[in-house]
């Protein structure tokens, strides 16, 4: 079996830790990576603080195949991601002539001035590869295994779509899910036994309380469709034997 | 000035990194901590993997005054937070007689059996203090500076409310926000100068594109109301001079 391809996400921004903003980027990236068979092993959220960003980057980039960052690449003084990535890699941060040309054309087209603040968005670590931004021109960039994207979800999403074809894929992880109106504590013993029988399948239980009834969504994940199908059949049988009403749902 | 009180959040669960579940706990905790003047400096998201949970716990608990975890304290085999916390602190995990009594009463009242799986929820690291769960009985717990809560948001929230009175507070961070229909690149130079003038105020810019117009929410945070008011007045004057239409909004 091919070795797993692993990744981490680093969300950058004071607003995520002050409670001001609800992050929407982690789930998007997580879903896309799962579709590509890339194992998202960890995520971190840090403030706009250079030391903290550098420490997180260096911890994650040495541990995982890929690191995806969001946030901190705009024109204002609180956007310090490019400098932090430069520092983490020991690379100078320079005005990239390709980005300067992109920004010149974009702002000219919009009748806006390419002033010093906007030019900041042309600063990337030396040798970085650009990531296209089809919405507002200012690109993201890649240094080695670190992909740096905007924080605004719509822009982050087009950047991710632009970089995704260049990623090494793993074996896709298939997910199937069964919903049942039984309390978790009632099905836990059988579920544990099932997990022991199917070591290659990762099994999780997510309880709910809906329409006045306890229940759980049981999610099974694995790379082999046949094994997964066997485990799902065994799960349904186990739940039916407990008097449950197992229904397969979209995982 | 009193020393800052710092905290980190550790979100535990495969479902957060597979894209299945949108986390709702970080923002809740972040907002409450900000109200209490506790600086949330970092958050991490890890899978249901003991080594990973232990490593994150030990990194965070030694670095910050408080660590708040969510997830992994239910009755099913994928709930391994109690064991992980025990391992991080080098404490045995034991059936706590106070929790056994709580669970016995609760399940008896609901006409349900306190079976072995449900009894797992009575397992806490030796010497842990309990955190009340006013919804479904099974408590969270505290070991030293680590507070362990459920992952289900409604339950996490009542647990947080139960533990909050025991936290040491910092000086509350006041936030004020001004919204303006100017592109970030137009206001960035003035905003940077303002930040330089008010070092004690943390200033962030969050761009938006609404109703066909570029704009930004400019958020100022600080602990001194008078300084913050001065900075807000100066910000509004700067934006008005640029032809903007600054409007104070709820931060």
Strand content range of chain A: 25-35%
Which spans of chain A of ≥5 residues are poorly predicted at pLDDT below 50? none
Q: For the largest beta sheet of chain A, what order do the strands appear in spatially?
A: 2-1-3-8-7-6
- Number of alpha- plus pi-helical segments of chain A: 9
The total strand number of chain A stands at 12
* Net shape of chain A: elongated
| Helicity of chain A, as a percent range | 25-40%
CATH topology call of the largest domain in chain A: Molybdenum Cofactor Biosythetic Enzyme, Chain A
What string gives the helices and strands of chain A in order?
EHHEHEHEHHEEEEHEHEEHE
Would you tell me the structural class of the helices and strands of chain A? alpha/beta
The overall pLDDT of chain A, averaged over residues, is: 95
Distance between the termini of chain A: 25 Å
Looking at this protein, list some descriptive labels.
homodimer; 251 residues; alpha/beta; Alpha-Beta Plaits; 2 domains; 38% helix
Describe the secondary structure blueprint for this structure.
The structure is a homodimer of 251-residue chains.
Chain A: E1 5-12, H1 14-17, H2 25-35, E2 38-46, H3 50-61, E3 66-70, H4 81-89, E4 93-95, H5 97-109, H6 116-119, E5 123-125, E6 129-131, E7 140-143, E8 146-149, H7 153-163, E9 174-180, H8 184-197, E10 202-210, E11 213-222, H9 225-241, E12 247-249
Parallel strand pairs in A: 1-2, 1-3, 3-8
Antiparallel strand pairs in A: 4-5, 6-7, 7-8, 9-11, 9-12, 10-11
């Amino acid at each position: 079996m091919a070795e797993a391809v692993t990744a981490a996400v680093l969300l950058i921004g004071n607003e995520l830790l002050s409670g001001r903003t609800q992050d929407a980027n982690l789930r998007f990236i997580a879903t896309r990576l799962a579709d590509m068979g890339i194992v998202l092993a960890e995520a971190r959220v840090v403030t706009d603080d250079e030391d903290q960003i550098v420490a997180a980057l260096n911890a994650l980039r040495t541990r995982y195949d890929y690191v995806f960052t969001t946030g901190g690449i705009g024109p204002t003084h609180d956007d310090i991601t490019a400098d932090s990535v430069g520092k983490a890699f020991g690379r100078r941060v320079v005005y990239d002539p390709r980005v300067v040309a992109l920004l010149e054309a974009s702002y000219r087209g919009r009748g806006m001035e390419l002033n010093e603040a906007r030019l900041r968005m042309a600063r990337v670590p030396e040798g970085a590869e650009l990531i296209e931004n089809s919405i507002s021109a200012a690109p993201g960039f890649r240094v080695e295994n670190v992909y740096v994207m905007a924080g605004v979800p719509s822009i982050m999403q087009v950047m991710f779509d632009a970089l995704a074809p260049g990623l090494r894929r793993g074996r896709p992880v298939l997910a199937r899910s069964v919903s049942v109106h039984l309390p978790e504590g009632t099905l836990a013993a059988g579920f544990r036994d099932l997990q022991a029988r199917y070591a290659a399948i990762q099994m999780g239980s997510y309880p709910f309380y809906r329409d006045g009834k306890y229940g759980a969504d049981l999610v099974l994940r694995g790379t082999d469709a046949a094994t997964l199908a066997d485990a799902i059949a065994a799960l349904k049988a186990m739940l039916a034997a407990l008097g449950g009403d197992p229904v397969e749902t979209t995982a």
